[in-house]
Write a structure and sequence with these properties.
The chain is α/β, with parallel strands linked by helices. The protein has two domains: about 1-110 and about 260-368, Isopropylmalate Dehydrogenase, CATH 3.40.718; about 130-255, Isopropylmalate Dehydrogenase (3-Layer(aba) Sandwich), CATH 3.40.718.10. It contains twelve helices and 14 strands. It has helices spanning about 15-30, 45-50, 55-65, 85-95, 120-125, 165-180, 195-210, 225-230, 245-255, 300-315, 320-335, 350-365; strands spanning about 1-10, 35-40, 65-70, 100-110, 130-135, 145-150, 155-160, 185-190, 215-220, 240, 265-270, 280-285, 335-340, 350. The strands form three sheets. The protein has a ten-stranded mixed β-sheet with strand order 2-1-3-12-11-4-5-10-8-9, with helices on both faces. The protein has a two-stranded antiparallel ribbon with strand order 6-7. Helix 8 runs parallel beside helix 9 and helix 11 (about 320-335) crosses helix 12 (about 350-365). The longest helix has 19 residues, at about 15-30. It is globular. The mean pLDDT is about 95. The structure holds 3-isopropylmalic acid and magnesium ion (MG). 3-isopropylmalic acid (IPM) binds near residues 88 and 91.
Length: about 375
């Protein structure tokens, strides 16, 4: 029996996670995937209920779960809450307390969506990049941080970009392992021309890859150039490893290449447990809470459903089931079904649950 904690969160989170639940149930009925599913609050809804973006009780459940599936957090309703209690703080606490240092963000262009991208078809057709973003270090968590009153009508805002060797080593190894399973090509991105932490990143990545993964062709690219290259010729990259902040930015760029943020899943993984070999894991769509369309049944549930496919692959060791689910999504898109965010001329528009229905039907027919 696998223990799954669902944290739907805010905005469109509950709607898209409702479809994920149906998909999980399908795998229970048809593929013997036995689960205990629990649900709790994170983000603004948790603040409304408990005054904190995630309660200690929900954190306990997350620590005990085999996998956490998260929807999205945030919205204008919570613009004025205390900074420590803002919705995003719940997500950041989950990442920190579960030590989810490796964030895998695949950017894959589905053939049926090649024309939905703002880039020309030949630039993105067949795109398949894996961004490996460091998730528990850098400027997101570095100390000192804060806003200081300088007393003369001036204030000072401080954040600290800091990386230690072990943090760079472990993310380089995750990237190296992935590159070995893919094209044996790895690009590493930082700003060594401006930041000492970037210089250290560059040197440590070079050391780990050259000594432990000598077959991998490693390239270093400055983060600003990398942003430009991702738009100019994204297919030059296979696996791309970078720090927390640059990974945040570069993964949004990569996501949009594929047509819509509504398509992109992610996995955040910790170190494998010494006894079980299983890593703590949180799966979430790359898109946010989209408050403008929340509650209208318009949101695209595909990124969340593909995040569950990543859970099948990386936590539950069910690669064949992950293939089945990804195949079902591909077929639904090939049939011309679209949510509003990926709608194109001549296609059929549907909503959140319509897309869920179609994916379940595609699973049924694949199984029959
Ligand atoms: C992401 C998001 C988060 C981040 C926010 C919601 C804190 O943008 O997962 O990319 O900056 O990491
Ligand atoms: Mg982001």
């Amino acid at each position: 029996m696998e223990n799954i904690l669902i944290l739907p969160g805010d905005g469109i989170g509950p709607e898209v996670m409702g479809e994920v639940r149906r998909v999980i149930e399908w795998f229970g009925t048809h593929r013997g995937f036995e689960t205990n599913i629990d649900e709790d609050l994170v983000g603004g809804c948790a603040y409304d209920a408990h005054g904190a973006a995630i309660s200690d009780a929900a954190m306990e459940k997350a620590l005990a779960a085999d996998a956490v599936l998260l929807g999205a957090v945030g919205g204008p309703k919570w613009d004025n809450v205390a900074y420590e209690a803002r919705p995003e703080a719940g997500l950041l606490r989950l990442r920190a307390d579960l030590e989810l240092f490796a964030n895998l963000r695949p950017a894959i262009c589905f053939p049926a969506l090649a024309d939905a991208s703002s880039l020309k078809r030949d630039i993105i057709q067949g795109l398949d990049i894996m961004i490996v973003r460091e998730l528990t270090g850098g400027v997101y968590f570095g100390e000192p941080r804060g806003i200081e009153d300088l007393g003369n009508g001036q204030r000072r805002g401080v954040n600290t970009q800091v990386y230690e060797t072990y943090e760079i080593e472990r993310i380089a190894r995750v990237a190296g392992d992935l590159a070995m399973k893919r094209g044996k090509r790895l690009a590493s991105s930082e700003k060594r021309n401006v930041m000492e932490s970037g210089l250290l990143w560059n040197e440590e990545v070079t050391r780990i890859i050259s000594t432990e993964f000598p077959e991998i062709a490693l390239e270093h690219v400055l983060a600003d150039n990398c942003a430009m290259q991702l738009v100019r010729n994204p297919k030059q990259y296979d696996v791309l490893v970078t720090d927390n902040l640059f990974g945040d930015i570069l993964s949004d760029i990569a996501a949009m290449l594929t047509g819509s943020l509504g398509m992109l899943p992610s996995a955040s993984l910790g170190a494998p447990d010494a006894a079980s070999g299983r890593a703590k894991a949180l799966y979430e769509p790359v898109h946010g809470s989209a408050p403008d369309i929340a509650g209208q049944g318009l949101a695209n549930p595909i990124a969340s459903i593909l995040s569950f496919a990543m859970a099948l692959r990386y936590t539950f060791d069910r690669g064949a089931d992950a293939d089945l689910l990804e195949g079902a999504v591909t077929r639904v898109l090939d049939q011309g079904l679209r949510t509003a965010d990926i709608m194109q001329d001549g296609m059929t528009q549907t909503g959140t649950s319509g897309m869920g229905d179609a994916i379940l039907a595609a699973l049924d027919s694949a199984e029959a």
